[in-house]
Amino acid sequence: MPVAAPEMHLPKRVAVIGAGIAGLTVAHELARRGYLVSIYEANAEAGDFFRSTRRAASR
Ligand SMILES: Cc1cc2nc3c(=O)[nH]c(=O)nc-3n(C[C@H](O)[C@H](O)[C@H](O)COP(=O)(O)OP(=O)(O)OC[C@H]3O[C@@H](n4cnc5c(N)ncnc54)[C@H](O)[C@@H]3O)c2cc1C
Question: What sequence ranges are listed for the domain FAD dependent oxidoreductase (predicted)?
Answer without folding.
Answer: 13-55
